[in-house]
Request: fold
Amino acid sequence: MYQVIENTTFTIAFICYAVSALLYFVHIAKLSRQVERIAVGATALGLVLHTIAMGARTIGAGRLPFSNQYEFALSFAWGIVLSFLVLYLLYRYGAIGAFVMPLAILVMGYASLQNKSVRPLMPALQSMWLTFHVGTAILSYGSFALACAISVIYLIDLKRSDERKILHDSETSDMLSYRVVVFGFLMLSVVIISGAIWAQKAWSRYWAWDPKETWSLITWIIYAIYLHLRLRRNWRGKSAAWFSIIGFVSVIFTFVGVNILLPSIHSYAT
Amino acid sequence: MNTRRSPLIRFASSLGFAIILLSLIAGYIVIGTLLIQHAADAVYLERYPTIGPLILALGLNKAYSSPLFLFLMVLFSINLTLCTITSLKGQLIQLKQDYYPSFTQQAYTIDGIDEAAFVAFAKRRGYRLEEAGDNKRAAKYRFGVLGAAITHLGIIILCLGGAIGNMSASEEMVNLLPGGQSRFEEEGFTITLDDFYLSFDDNGAIKQYISEVVITDDGSEPTAHALWVNKPLRHKGVGFYQANWGWVNNLVIIDTESGEKRVEGMIRSGKSYFDQQSHLTVYLYGYYPEMGVGHNQEPVKKSERQIDPYYAVILYKYGQNIGSYIISPGEHIHHENLAITFTHSVAYTGLLVRRDHSYPIVLTAFIIMLIGLVVSFYAYPRFLSYADGVVTTKSRRNGWIFHQSIKSAFARKR
Reply:
């Protein structure tokens, strides 16, 4: 029964996200507050259904859905949408949804291509650190996706006249992107540190240079460079936007590429 | 301040140098994930005929312990240490109560604010308020300026912990059968395996590997402990980790003419026993605790549960295969005057034993790093000034966000 609930709510959430993405584009084109409100409503409804799908999975599996590619993609998309809605509640920039929701849809599409069967947790994953480690990874990756979307908006806005800009002004998108990267970076630091502490308990070492953890470190270094250049060299605008996009490419490679291309002790996450 | 430092120190502590080093380290470790590590030299020379010698010369086959990588890490640690020390003086100045930044550059303004409202707001939000001539100014979270230094300190301690760990840690594997012991002379204790068993999920997948051990300190009463994956055991600075396991199988060969037991001993799957007298080799191809049959009629292991156990055995004589057999425990294979059997199998545990005194250092580094990041990003110094109905907000780290939060707070009040 839980599987039926999960599949049904997953599908409807996917549709809600697709509809909301279209509506955000309409909002950008027509600058209609009404359309924006409907789009946000559709996103919120999608997130509620998405949460129900994750809840059904949690009850069905007897644990949080954090242990394989399908489950992580499901949670990753949830993290992206949640990050967007939190940002919307803080700053009311609905137009960002036009660039964030397609990312969430892509990740959900990727999830739907994965093996959905519920498998028992292997011994190495039976730890309270799993929830903390993967939970913070979802928030981190979700934030980086959001920052990437805002950076794309920044680059598009550079070529638009003031009255046609997607966000009010370029500084807004530049600063928002930075703000979101900061949160994502802090969460990524927690991900890496919690993973290291967990690895020490499970395998005796904090760090084993496993491809997944190495690529997480590479992503961390990319964002660390971004933050240092920004804070110390006042590095903003176009270069910062491109850096944020490159950082997200590294996030995606860490999530998908490493699992597919590089053998890893994180291979259970497939 | 900088002019008094030598150009070398200035460069070694500079952000530019840090960015170069971070980029080199990132690039280097990418290579480490793409190249197979710790393979024989011949593998690299064969697989990469052109760049193979370069890979070996640069130590990319052992990327994370190569001198080049260690050199980069040492340079990075020096850079971070120098950067932290040289920045500290300026940061300590900013901690003083009379320090205020210039409100004319990179500051944002909010018009039409009543002075009383500004004072009430600043007090309510915990700002330290003071008079500045005819105007007012306020500051909060001055200590936040130390966030970066705290984070850097955490990373420096982490590098130090990593170096200590690499230099002093030791690791070994101890395989034990129930009743088996291992002695730790230096620490003065003995570990005895009381029992080792697996727990299973309903579908037969292994749920957990559990070793029940008894530790006996010299001159003390024994104490019982259990360890499993994710639950290591630490005793007198020695860590025991559930890292491996396997089956050993009891081989018995009986001389049917005399009725005497010719040999009895434990062997693992994939190993063989050679009987010199008969020139017979008994090769245990595999042990199947719950056996199934695969697509090509090969035996397959359905699970590790000892539900329906079988042994796959191949006999060789003078190097020639003379027969393959699937036998249950106690079932005999008869060959000439010999009866060959496997009576039972026992699981052994593989414990990884590690001595590493860098744990507390690394853990401390992690905590300091996280505190530093939180302070740096969320307790950054915030400054406000008030003059003629205009509030000016200033924060070097987060100017726009800080301004937005102050603006919306005043908007709500209106």
